[in-house]
Amino acid sequence: MSEELLKPAEVCKRLDLAPSTLRIYSAKFRELLSGAASGAGVGGHRLYSSRDVLVLSRAKELLGQGLTYDQTLAELKLAMAGVKARGKAEAKPAEAPREATSGVLSPDVVVDMIETLKAAVGNADKALQASRDLLELEGRRIERLEARMEALEAKVGELLENVSPEGGAGRRKEPRRGWWPWR
Known about the structure:
mainly alpha, Multidrug-efflux Transporter Regulator, Chain: A, Domain 2, 55% helix
């Protein structure tokens, strides 16, 4: 029996996406979707498999966490390859639990937990360094803005000194001459 293929409207409803967003996701994550999802379906219409819906659902999740399209694509590729992504161990469905019957964790589980923790610490270090770099950039930007503001304040002070108390800056003290008698 063939797998059920969903129309874009059905996928939008399941994932709570706008049709335009689904089109963008389909374009950005095309290499991870089935051929039918990219318009190679019946009559050139996009049709999505249940696997496509899972991929798009995970993409929506990752994008909601603030990842860019490129980061999300990389994350999804890693997840599909079964590799640890961003410090999280991907579940392997065919794998049996490796806990000992006595309630003690087996050495394999402990090793996996240690590796996951190491990856999480590494990711936290990278995030911390990125935050420090961003903070440094913002600090330099604020310094430049403060210098520009001081220069503007000095310029405004000069302009205010040049304003005469009688009529303001740039006002003529003599009447305007021209062919209009009322001016």
